[in-house]
Specification:
Number of domains: 3
Shape: globular
Number of strands: 21
Structural class: alpha+beta
Distance between the termini: 17 Å
Strand content: 25-35%
């Protein structure tokens, strides 16, 4: 593992969408600027697929130069996102391909996670189990190469933190093995659940299921944040398979050196706002809905503290952490939802551990795990409470039993 980008950040701009080939192209653009000898074809030679080749070319989309990655197989030409003539593979086939591939262990594990997430999404769409799903588009050679290739190139980089802008899913319809479906395709929509999306540009599928699963596996729910402070080292552009003059079919990527001037670089630092209100005349039952409305409005955290006010009256200090741009709006929510006659607005700066949420395949299906790191070292990775509660309710199992059953999956990162 060369680890060219360990400790750095990759920032994706998916304002025109994302697919597997666009991601590989963008990463090739970054990698070639770090190491002129980088060759994706050499990196992917260990993938256990027969009669296939990668084509990596410099091309243009809408006047923008970038890298186009295509897969050819068994004498066929590049097929982009068309997959007619491919065998229909199931999850055990994907697992066998990963097992037989001569690739680093972490790339193998992350590839397996991605295929299992896809199988889980397809199973939910079709009302069956992941083991019974027959992949169509995603079982194609180019999609398999895209997913395993993406994990191999991230391994080459050293698994840097990956962030992303909101994602353009496109609009209209897309032709697939099950007929003509609305965009985003059902499996892609499930994989994008909880992620920030929008639709712009001429009608077309701009984010594919393969692109969606790469976002889920590499970025996670907490990786959709503004451009972080730091120094841009280099940029890459991945090209899609279609020319759309009003919106070039491209995926941008930046490699960023985080700003460590305020400390040792192991913590993210950000300016936030603390909102406080002292309240002694409110029904305690009303704090719960006020808290829910603050979270719905974008609060970072909300809590109550017991205090003693003048004349010896017990009271509550109602507290809310907010992003600077949200402070006045959230102060308005507090004013409407509580009996306070004023809100203190206090500027603050916080140091934050590197955090991520990943969806992992478990015997209970997809479960979200929250991980925190310090200086690249994973301190802990635990399942989300809401998912534990959901499984407990669905299976009739004690919370403790579910938590214990999931404990081993938290060791993977």
């Amino acid at each position: 593992m060369i680890e060219k980008a360990r400790g750095k950040i990759i920032m994706l701009n998916a304002s025109a969408g994302i697919s597997g080939d666009m991601f590989l192209g963008a990463m090739c653009g970054l990698a070639s600027k770090l190491d002129a000898s980088f060759d994706l074809r050499n990196l992917t030679r260990g993938i256990a697929l027969d009669h296939w080749e990668l084509s990596v070319k410099d091309e243009k989309r809408g006047g923008f130069a970038g890298v186009k990655v295509d897969v050819t197989w068994e004498g066929h030409g590049s097929h982009g996102h068309g997959h007619e003539g491919h065998p229909h593979r199931c999850l055990p086939d994907m697992e066998e391909i990963c097992a037989k591939s001569d690739i680093p262990e972490r790339a193998r594990a992350k590839s397996l996670d991605a295929f299992r997430l896809l199988a889980g999404a397809e199973a939910e769409v079709h009302g069956t189990t992941p083991g019974e799903i027959h992949f169509h588009e995603v079982g194609a050679v180019d999609s398999i190469a895209d997913i395993i290739g993406a994990m191999l190139i991230m391994d080459w980089f050293g698994w840097p933190e990956t962030l992303c802008s909101p994602v353009n899913v496109g609009s209209g319809t897309v032709k697939c093995a099950h007929g003509i479906l609305p965009v985003p395709a059902p499996a892609a929509a499930l994989l994008l659940r909880g992620l920030p999306v929008f639709s712009a540009g001429a009608p077309m599928e701009r984010t594919t299921p393969t692109g969606a699963v790469l976002l889920r596996a590499l970025v996670g729910e907490n990786g959709f944040r503004p451009l972080p402070e730091g120094r841009i080292i280099c940029a890459g552009t991945g090209l899609g398979g279609r020319d759309t003059p009003e919106m070039p079919n491209i995926l941008g990527a930046l490699l960023i050196e985080p700003d460590a001037s305020a400390g040792d670089g192991r913590f993210a630092r950000e300016n936030i706002t603390l909102l406080e209100a002292n309240i002694d005349d409110m029904n305690p039952q009303d704090f719960a809905p006020a808290t829910e409305r603050l979270f719905s409005a974008g609060a970072l955290d909300v809590w109550c503290e017991n205090i003693m006010m003048k004349k010896g009256r017990p009271a509550v200090k109602f507290c809310c952490l907010a992003r600077q741009g949200d402070a006045e709006r959230l102060a308005g929510v507090i004013a409407r939802e509580t009996t306070t006659i004023g809100v203190r607005i206090i500027g603050a700066r916080r140091m934050v551990l590197e955090r991520s949420v990943s969806l992992r395949a478990t015997p209970f299906g997809g479960v979200r795990f929250k991980s925190v790191k310090l200086g690249g070292e994973t301190l802990r990775s635990v399942p989300e409470y809401d998912d534990i509660r959901r499984i407990s309710d669905e299976r009739g199992l004690p919370m403790l039993s579910v938590r214990n059953a999931l404990s081993g999956y938290g060791d993977r990162c």
